[in-house]
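Re: [ENG-882] Designed sequences occasionally contain unexpected residues at chain ends

Forwarding the minimal case from QA. Structure tokens:
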């Protein structure tokens, strides 16, 4: 192979590597960047609190140590431990949540637009599933001590089919993964999605939508 061809290949590979690097999230450029939500400045995250004002409480949260009180129709409760609760997570790209389920309770189909989710079962047994963009359902029954992964952006759910309480700890590779409920997005948006759009989408009569 000629020297010119080798040079061109190296230039092409270098360009591809640089493009890939620029497409990924940047690493933090400081030891910490404790969120300052009230600053009014948002640059793909929160502005940083002055380091002289940072305390240990910026990195601490005790809210997922015990089950929450479930008081809704779906029978589950999500307690988040993200940057809204732990300002010290700002720019670090990680967060947690605790999800508790009554017997028969469900965490309805939803997506996390900014994160992959990994759940670890603390108690009970759950039926879990995600749905790929080719409409393949990937489902499994998981129990205490087991782990399941929901890839970023895919619709997924968990359901407690047991007769006792269940709970999981969920980990995310985002400080604020977001959660988009499929049902709420379609039927509770403001302004509302037009009835004829929903009727056509689900192949049902508009009166059923209403």
């Amino acid at each position: 192979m000629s020297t010119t061809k080798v040079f061109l290949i190296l230039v092409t590979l270098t360009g591809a590597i640089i493009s890939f690097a620029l497409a990924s999230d940047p690493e933090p450029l400081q030891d910490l960047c404790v969120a300052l939500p009230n600053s009014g400045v948002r640059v793909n995250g929160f502005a940083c609190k002055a380091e002289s004002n940072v305390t240990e409480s910026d990195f601490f949260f005790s809210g997922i140590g015990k089950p929450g009180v479930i008081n809704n129709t779906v029978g589950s409760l999500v307690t988040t431990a993200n940057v809204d609760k732990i300002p010290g997570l700002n720019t670090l790209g990680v967060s947690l949540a605790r999800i508790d389920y009554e017997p028969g309770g469900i965490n309805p189909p939803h997506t996390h637009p900014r994160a992959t989710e990994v759940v670890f079962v603390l108690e009970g047994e759950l039926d879990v599933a995600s749905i790929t963009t080719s409409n393949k359902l990937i489902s499994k029954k998981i129990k205490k001590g087991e782990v399941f992964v929901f890839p970023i952006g895919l619709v997924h759910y968990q359901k407690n089919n047991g007769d006792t309480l269940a709970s999981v700890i969920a980990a995310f590779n985002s400080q604020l993964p977001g959660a988009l409920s499929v049902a709420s997005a379609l039927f509770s948006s403001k302004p509302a999605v037009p009835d004829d759009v929903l009727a056509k989408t689900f192949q049902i009569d508009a009166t059923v939508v209403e």
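QA comment: On inspection the terminal residues look reasonable. The domain at 1-178 is CATH 2.60.120.10 (Jelly Rolls). Proposing we downgrade this to a documentation issue.
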